[in-house]
Amino acid sequence: MKGAHKRAATTLGLVALALTSFLSTSPASSAEIEDELIKLPTEVSASNTGVIFRNYIETFGESVLAARYPNQANGMFKSRPCTSMTDAKCDDGTSLFYTTFLPICTDSAAVDCIEKFVAKNKDGKEFPSGQDSIQPTPSYSVYKADSDSNLIGPGSPTIFAIPGAEHAGGNRYALSVRVQGATPEGEHKTGQKFGKFVPQNINISIIPVDYVKSTQTGEYQKGRWIFDEVEQKSAFQKNPFSTCAIEEDSFCMNQRAFPADFTYQVVIRLRSSTNGWLYGRVQKPDVAITTIPGGEKWDLTAAPVRIPQIWEFV
Questions:
Q1: What confidence tens digit (pLDDT) does each residue in 102-113 have?
Q2: If pLDDT is split at 50, 70 and 90, which confidence band does 175 have?
Q3: Does residue 91 form part of some domain?
Q4: Which of 72, 127, 231, 280 is 20 to 30 A (C-alpha) from 166?
Q5: 230 is a domain residue
Q6: Would you say residue 35 lies in a domain?
């Protein structure tokens, strides 16, 4: 028996992808095209960065440092989790790459961090956020940061509470500033030091979430990166049927719809400068990127949009 259920939901997210195809094209015209006709850019470059708005947190908020190897004879991609840039198990890799999440800035000079996150109502009144008492636990894939090589340390999405910006599940919001970077591919030789990391993707996701505490062992599962000995590659071990936006062994946070008539502002500071385009599905985006001592500041404000989501039960 098959049935289908449709619903509308509001989503807001920001993603930055490194793209050269956008920058080499002629200036865009003012004409609008249907969403289905938009072709997402896929080419990655270390010198150019675009921004895409999305509504999910990839890899369930788990950071990782891994070595990359040439594809195997069967064409499969090979990688291995590492504990540091000098991990002996990863010395034979051709490059290193990482995925992590930025923390809250601890002072005015800090970089690679979140400076501000607020909600604003239709009258422009700001509703400040505060770090919630419930947070994701540290990643199981721990690795050592290296500021000299631009390797940002392991992190997790941050849960905020915004009193005054309540949604159907409460006032909690998951803010994920996910950064991915890599060392130059193919330059590393066994026994030598890896080169410096260059950020390739920057993803900012805002998700209203609720909180559901586990009632029995095994009900929820925090994801973790492992090395698959058979396929010789890194694999993310996780319940494939999970619908949690944030999941720990002890609780689940489900995505909820945004409240009406609110916009959201996120300010982040980055160590590395970026170039590229903004791309996404939001309303009234307002973006400013400025140079600051030690890096670059992104100030982004936008409103969510309602999009259809189709659920099918088989």
A1: 999 999 999 999
A2: very high
A3: no
A4: 280
A5: no
A6: yes
